[in-house]
Design a protein that fits this description.
With 164 residues, the protein is an alpha+beta fold. It is built from one helix and nine strands. It has a four-stranded antiparallel sheet with strand order 6-5-8-9, with no helix packed on it. The termini are far apart.
């Protein structure tokens, strides 16, 4: 839902704290608001990050591929940041941040397929172009209206001077 989501770390906080906030995000999507935002993405790949606080080597990271009604597939990557290539279908990844053999934070990413990403990009471009066309039409309308008004005022002044 719309609101704020705090990302809490339940173990491994500095200064012996039992809980610490490692991030605050605005939630505009689904009620669970459990999806992360990639560090970077382009038409071919996506770079994702686990939840951590420096130094990142104090935690263990477990990356998984999630599939509906199937057991999660654990990936060999154990770093805090992972780059993946886009596939022909969307894939959901999850990173669990672990400390003392327990999960202390988790984040999910949905990496859209190459064609979906291109469709979204072209939709954004088309929306931008239609906005530009609309702005151009408004500008032309204002310009023509201004010219007609100015000519009307000039003719009115000439008419007044001639009949004075």
């Amino acid at each position: 839902g719309i609101g704020i989501r705090e990302v809490l770390l339940m173990n491994g906080c500095p200064g012996g704290e039992t809980k610490c906030i490692v991030g605050v995000e605005e939630c505009h999507g689904p009620v669970d608001c459990g999806l992360g935002r990639p560090i970077s993405e382009n038409s071919k790949s996506v770079v994702m990050s686990c939840i951590y606080i420096p130094p990142e080597n104090r935690f263990k990271y477990v990356w998984k591929i999630l599939a509906p009604n199937k057991t999660a597939h654990i990936l060999p990557n154990d770093s805090a940041v992972m780059e993946v290539r886009r596939d022909t279908h969307p894939i959901t990844y999850q990173c669990e941040t672990q400390g003392n053999e327990s999960v202390i934070a988790s984040v999910k990413y949905t990496v859209h397929a190459t064609t979906e990403h291109q469709t979204k990009q072209s939709g954004r471009i088309e929306t931008g172009q239609s906005r530009k066309k609309r702005a151009d039409a408004i500008l032309v309308f204002c310009l023509v209206t201004g010219i007609i008004f100015t000519l009307g005022v000039i003719f009115a002044i000439i008419f007044i001077i001639l009949h004075w």
